[in-house]
Amino acid sequence: xxxxxxxxxxxxxxxxxxxxxxxxxxxxxxxxxxxxxxxxxxxxxxxxxxxxxxxxxxxxxxxxxxxxxxxxxxxxxxxxxxxxxxxxxxxxxxxxxxxxxxxxxxxxxxxxxxxxxxxxxxxxxxxxxxxxxxxxxxxxxxxxxxxxxxxxxxxxxxxxxxxxxxxxxxxxxxxxxxxxxxxxxxxxxxxxxxxxxxxxxxxxxxxxxxxxxxxxxxxxxxxxxxxxxxxxxxxxxxxxxxxxxxxxxxxxxxxxxxxxxxxxxxxxxxxxxxxxxxxxxxxxxxxxxxxxxxxxxxxxxxxxxxxxxxxxxxxxxxxxxxxxxxxxxxxxxxxxxxxxxxxxxxxxxxxxxxxxxxxxxxxxxxxxxxxxxxxxxxxxxxxxxxxxxxxxxxxxxxxxxxxxxxxxxxxxxxxxxxxxxxxxxx
Length: 426
What we know:
Number of helices: 16
Shape: globular
Strand order of the largest sheet: 1-2-8-3-5-4
Largest sheet: 6 strands, mixed
CATH architecture of the largest domain: 2-Layer Sandwich
C-alpha cells in the first residue's frame, strides 16, 4: 500500500517530522508555523514570510541570498500561506539535491539546515526593526497579491462567498490579509510580530528524503532550537445551527456570471464520516464524471464550469460555477436538485466505484511529491489526529451508499452568492 513512514520527535520548541523515502533524488525541508486566525495579525502574518525569504543578516540582499542557493546546486526555496480551518499557516520550503547522488560530497543537508536556520532565526534586523527597503518592497508585492484576487473573478467570487457565509467567524479573513492595513505596517511593528509568532505559533519541521534519522536529529539539535513554548491552540467549533439561506447578488462589469454556493457539511477531517463525505463530494461535484459536471454543464449546457470542493477543517463545501446571467434560476435549482439526489441515494454503484478509484489516484498522485507528502501529513497536526494515509484510503474504500446518504443528510445549504454584470442589474 501507500505507506508513508513518519517519525515524529519532540525537539526544543518544535516537532521534527522525518519521512524516510528513497523515492526522490532530493531532500525537502518544510518549516510550518500555525496560529489561530485573527484580524489584528493576519496582514502582518501575510507579509512576514516574504520579508524573511527576501534576505537575512548573512545575505542582506535578495541577490546574495539567491546566489547562495544557486551555489547549493540550484536549491529551490519558497514560502506559502494557507488557511486550515480557523488557523493561518505559514510554510517555508527548501528543496536541495541529495549529496548521495553527487560526485563531490558537499554536506548539502547540513548546509540546507544552516540556511533555513539563518533565514528563520537571523533576519536582516537592526535595532529591533526589519530593513526598511525590504519592507516597502514586500508591502507593494503584498498589495498586488491582494489585488490579484479581486482581478481574477473566479477567485474573487469564491473569496466573497466565504466572507458572506462566515461573517463574524475567523475563517472569513483572507489568507493574504487586508489591503487597508498594509500601509500601516512598519519595520518595527513587523519585527515585534516576528518575535510574537516565534513565541506563540505551533512549529513543525518536516524532512522528506533518503536521510539518516540520527544525522537529522543531531543537525536539528545543533542548528534549530527555540525556547520551550506553549503554542496557542483553539477548539475548532462546529457550527450546526440551522439558519436561513443567505442570497447575495453583486454587480460588477463582468461578461460571465459567477455562481458560488456554500454548504455547511457539519463534518471535519478526523470525524468518522469524513471519508464518506469525501466520496460524496466526488460524486456530487469533485470530478468530471460528477453530477454537477454532467447535469449543469453537459446536459443543460448552463455552465462553463461547475465543480465542488471541501474545506476539510472548517466543514464547508463550496460549489463554483460560471454561468450566463439569464440562467441563474435554472442553475441554482439544478445544483440544489443534485444535492437532493445525494440525500435520496440517487447514485449508482458505478458512480461509487469510479469516484473511489479517482480519489485514491488523486491521493497517490499527491504523495508522488515531497510537498504533497507534507501536506497530507500536516492534516494530522491541524486536527490533532493520527490518521495514516493507508487508513484514510481504506476507510474511503469501505464507505457504503448508506453512509454517504447519512452524511448527505447533515449537509445544509447556507449561502448563494452571484456575481453578475451591469445589464442584469438594470
